[in-house]
Amino acid sequence: MLAWSVVTPGPVEEKGLRRVVKPVPVPAEDELLVHVRACGVCRTDLHVAEGDLPVHRAGVTPGHEVVGLVAGFGAGVGGFAVGDRVGVAWLRRTDGTCDYCARGAENLCPFSRYTGWDTDGGYAEYTTVPAGFAYRLPEAGPVDEVALAPLLCAGIIGYRALRRAALPPGGRLGLYGFGGSAHLCAQLALAEGATVHVLTRGAAARRLALDLGAASAQDAYAMSPEPLDSAILFAPAGDLVPVALRALDRGGTLSVTGIHLSDTPALHYETELFYEKQLRSVTSNTRQDGREFLALAARHDIHATTHAYPLTQADRALRDLKAGRFDGAAVLVNDVS
Q: For the whole model, what pTM was predicted?
């Protein structure tokens, strides 16, 4: 099958991602074989390809926002049939027995494994997923496959970040960076009654924010037009942490979504942390986060602004993501099989 591989991590302009041929994977006893129909392009894929995240598996195939059809399964799988539509997300497996898993914090499991990092993901014709970590998706036409894909990581992680940001009812929320995850988070926050201010570098992203209902949209380093109850940092830029903290009102909370963040400058206690401001990180997600978000997305008609690329042009999609050439989210569409 056609697949893309991180053979030697490095700049995507210099072939950090290579097109290869791999055998169709064989599902383990508890796994599904998934025929990939669409796969979202996440900034984490870029971090893996360029080596910002250390390689966990040589030659790994990235991609963890997969919409596909069950093409087979291991002998221990029940409850699925060939042809079922499923979603494959970032969190692939946990041990299920550690203290973190036992208390419902499986996102913190020390033995967690991730799609497109520890095992091959969705930049390919086929991938696998443990049945217990697959999301059942509604049956619908091909156009919905592209729309659904970004929900499976960008949407879910944005949902967790929003909850970590402790936004009060009717509160004022600042979003720093406005890519695939932020534009889905904004829709949910607006549906729940928040006032949303967007601070991001791209003019196209600012236009999209206003089109979606944001109260304001300006440069990432500008000051918010009003004090914020909560803020979420989506951009992987550590120098925005003090900027966002200064924008918070007393008692406000900043959550940081990225698995990778550039260095954070020294913080000034009086202006950036005093008055019981909080700084919180966001680490992956739980399956419960995923189920809750997908239900809310259906209820509030949360939808991704998407730009489709053929699977055969995954390298171009990552280059365009890095350069900020599109708003919303890119999605690879299987044009091979």
A: 0.94
